[in-house]
């Protein structure tokens, strides 16, 4: 071998060493391909099911053990004022995936589908180069509006076998290192019937503290323990999902979100209502190098803001995106907007008002019609019960907790009044959330708050007009939206 070849090889090797010392070593083709997408974060969205926002360690629970939620919160930002607009599964998920409120997107009753032509984050992120997959619970349609790469999963877990096969996410995560991915992991817990536990863990009814919005009795305590056990179970699922991303993904550039969805199915637990126990949701975001660890924000945000935020985080321009469904005034664009600056710590404010819409027609054990609408400022909540002279019913009104409460009510006027209020409400409710966070004292008749009630009612009516929400007429159309989902 000639000395010139040896010298050339030596110089080549020396150059590589020098470049490595400066952090400029030439990259392999795989490294180059991966670095080409390094500016786009991988995205993981983990969704619990029917979990009240306050029932976990990051949001102040001294009882429920959620170490993985706490770990995620220590690494990221907790939103203390994130809201869904509907406390039912199908409307909640479809607003989260479309960036459009339920009446506008068409999925305002439970078990309904969005209007044909409505687009979701699948379309928007695919256009930015992402693979978009979902593992677990679906509750959306039609398929053309939600063309997820479905990785498997079941609805309404029966408590036997594997209900969330997290191993099925591994080939999806590792399939193509050159392409960013978005993965939705949609758990079934802690949705009733509360039949899952973590081995070796149990909650003692004697030791727990019953939250103020519930009636404290042995039945309530026993059922709370079962519900808390399922929260710890879903926390374990979250931990395994976090471990998978750490082991197989790009954890240094993964935008990881946990959200609790909506409230639980106890009476006044929030589900099927517009109370904060139902509409407010735990929401934790970890994004290393972008979101400060152990941060909190009081900025008011809604689920419809999530898709615009993810689009901007992925490098897209939100104003250029067509959500596929105009509002009642013919305007295109999302109902939500990006809160990326909140995530990056550039602002601590966002929305002035958040909105709620509930459709009772068509739900299990539901009434003929009982529409509920709400609007909330930072301090006050206004609720409008449009068909308030009717009796409000749902699955909870014939469930075990309220049956036991009715028995107690025979000898306790305070409990009797509370039980009656769940099914017989006034037309208007107004709560000072600063003084009354559990919404126990209706001040709609307080003349000192009359200007606030007038202001909030106007905001609500303006929002309903923009959405094309005609109140009772919209309520009566609910079965047609559910029938469309069944037919299609």
Description:
The chain has 488 residues and is α/β, with parallel strands linked by helices. The chain is 33% helix and 14% strand. The chain is built from 16 helices and 13 strands. The strands form two sheets. Strands 1, 2, 3, 4, 5, 6, 7, 8 and 9 form a nine-stranded mixed sheet that branches. Helix 12 (400-409) packs across helix 13. The protein has helices spanning 3-21, 29-36, 67-75, 89-98, 102-105, 121-126, 169-174, 218-248, 276-279, 306-313, 340-343, 400-409, 413-423, 450-467, 472-476, 478-487; strands at residues 42-47, 77-83, 131-136, 149-150, 181-186, 254-259, 280-286, 295-297, 301-302, 354-358, 372-376, 380-385, 428-432. The chain is globular. Mean pLDDT is 91; it is low at 1-36. Strand 11 (372-376) and strand 12 (380-385) form a beta hairpin.
């Amino acid at each position: 071998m000639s000395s010139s070849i040896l010298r050339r090889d030596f110089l080549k090797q020396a150059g590589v060493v020098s470049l490595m010392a400066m952090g400029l070593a030439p990259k392999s083709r795989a490294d180059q391909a991966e670095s080409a997408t390094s500016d786009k974060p991988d995205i993981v969205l983990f969704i619990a099911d029917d979990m009240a926002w306050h029932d976990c360690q990051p949001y102040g629970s001294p009882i429920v053990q959620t170490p993985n939620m706490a770990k995620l919160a220590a690494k990221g930002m907790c939103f203390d004022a994130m809201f869904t607009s509907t406390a039912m599964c199908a409307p909640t998920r479809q607003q989260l995936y479309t960036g459009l409120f339920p009446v506008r997107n068409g999925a305002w009753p439970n078990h309904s589908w969005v209007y044909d032509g409505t687009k979701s984050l699948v379309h928007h992120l695919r256009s930015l180069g992402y693979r978009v997959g979902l593992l677990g619970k679906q509750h959306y349609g039609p398929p053309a509006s939600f063309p997820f790469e479905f990785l498997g999963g079941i609805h309404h877990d029966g408590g036997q076998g594997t209900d969330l096969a997290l191993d099925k996410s591994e080939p999806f995560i590792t399939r193509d290192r050159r392409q960013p991915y978005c993965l939705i992991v949609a758990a079934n817990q802690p949705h009733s019937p509360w039949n899952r536990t973590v081995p070796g863990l149990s909650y003692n009814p004697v030791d727990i503290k019953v939250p103020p919005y519930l009636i404290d009795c042995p039945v309530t305590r026993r059922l709370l323990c079962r519900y808390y056990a399922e929260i710890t179970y879903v926390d374990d699922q979250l931990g395994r999902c976090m471990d998978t991303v750490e082991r197989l993904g790009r954890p240094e550039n993964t935008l990881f979100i946990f959200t609790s969805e909506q409230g639980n199915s106890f009476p006044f637990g929030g589900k099927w209502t517009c109370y904060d126990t139902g509409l407010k949701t735990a929401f934790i975001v970890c994004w290393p190098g972008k979101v400060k660890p152990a941060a909190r924000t009081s900025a008011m945000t809604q689920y419809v803001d999530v898709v615009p935020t993810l689009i901007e985080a992925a490098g897209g321009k939100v104003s250029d995106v067509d959500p596929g469904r105009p509002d009642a005034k013919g305007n295109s664009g999302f109902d939500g907007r990006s809160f990326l600056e909140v995530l990056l710590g550039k602002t601590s404010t966002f929305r002035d008002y958040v909105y709620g819409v509930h459709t009772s027609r068509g739900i299990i054990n539901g009434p003929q019609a009982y529409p509920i609408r709400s609007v909330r400022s930072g301090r006050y909540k206004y609720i409008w019960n449009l068909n308030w002279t009717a009796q409000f019913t749902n699955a909870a009104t014939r469930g075990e907790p309220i049956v036991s409460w009715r028995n107690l009510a025979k000898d306790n006027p305070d409990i009797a009044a509370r039980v009656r209020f769940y099914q017989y409400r006034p037309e208007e409710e107004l709560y000072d959330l600063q003084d009354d966070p559990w919404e126990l004292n209706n001040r709609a008749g307080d003349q000192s708050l009359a200007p606030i009630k007038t202001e909030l009612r106007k905001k609500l009516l303006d929002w309903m007009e923009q959405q094309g929400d005609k109140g009772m007429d919209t309520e009566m159309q609910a079965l047609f939206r559910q029938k469309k989902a069944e037919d299609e």
